[in-house]
């Protein structure tokens, strides 16, 4: 738990450091491992109740590992009006997962977003930091296939 000890040393052990500590832990591990959270409660003034409250309030924190690629489907007003529900359903069917789940191969994690801020391109999804707009289910499936093929090509 050297990484967590270093985070506490840098961010502090007071209760007001909770959000920053959790952000740093997630930055290191990709999620909030239970062992790391136990370490925080044993070596700081941050309680498990506070950690749970903060981590469940902010939707960016997660308690389970995520896939190599994070897919966010937008369900804001502009996207909703332009067929986001069909895109979301098509992603779920193509990957055989629901929002907040990860594919068994660990390649994709699906998230639903209230708004991605790309309303002029509605409907929209993001894969990692790349925005894909004016989507139709078939176009979305082609994008997913391309990501999957690239991942397989990079595998040993």
CATH topology of the largest domain: Glutaredoxin
C-alpha Rg (nearest Å):
18 Å
Number of strands: 4
- N-to-C span: 30 Å
Major beta-sheet overview: 4 strands, mixed
User: What's the architecture of the largest domain in CATH terms?
Assistant: 3-Layer(aba) Sandwich
- Going by CATH, the homologous superfamily of the largest domain would be Glutaredoxin
Structural class: alpha+beta
The domain count comes to: 2
Multimeric state: single chain
Task: Note the beta-strand portion.
Answer: 5-15%
Give the helices and strands as they follow along the chain. HHHHEHHEEEH
CATH class of the largest domain: Alpha Beta
Protein described:
This protein has helices at residues 2-11, 18-29, 34-42, 48-57, 77-81, 84-95, 137-154; strands at residues 69-74, 108-113, 125-127, 130-132. By secondary structure, it is an alpha+beta fold. The protein folds into 2 domains: 2-57, no CATH class; 69-154, 3-Layer(aba) Sandwich (Glutaredoxin). A 4-stranded mixed β-sheet has the order 2-1-3-4, with helices on one face. β3 and β4 form a beta hairpin. It is elongated and about 50 Å long. The model has no long low-confidence stretch (mean pLDDT 94).
């Amino acid at each position: 738990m050297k990484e967590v000890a270093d985070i506490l040393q840098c961010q502090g052990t007071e209760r007001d450091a909770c959000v920053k500590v959790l952000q740093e832990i997630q930055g290191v591990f990709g999620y909030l491992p239970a062992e790391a959270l136990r370490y925080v409660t044993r070596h700081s003034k941050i309680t498990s109740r506070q950690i749970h409250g903060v981590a469940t309030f902010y939707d960016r924190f997660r308690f389970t590992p995520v896939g190599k690629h994070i897919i966010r489907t937008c369900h804001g007003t502009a996207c909703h009006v332009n067929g986001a529900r069909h895109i979301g359903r098509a992603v779920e069917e193509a990957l055989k997962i629901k929002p907040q789940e990860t594919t068994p191969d660990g390649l994709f994690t699906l998230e639903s977003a209230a708004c991605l801020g790309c309303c002029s391109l509605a409907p929209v999804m993001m894969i990692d930091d790349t925005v894909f707009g004016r989507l139709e289910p078939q176009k979305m499936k082609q994008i997913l296939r391309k990501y999957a093929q690239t991942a397989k090509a990079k595998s040993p």
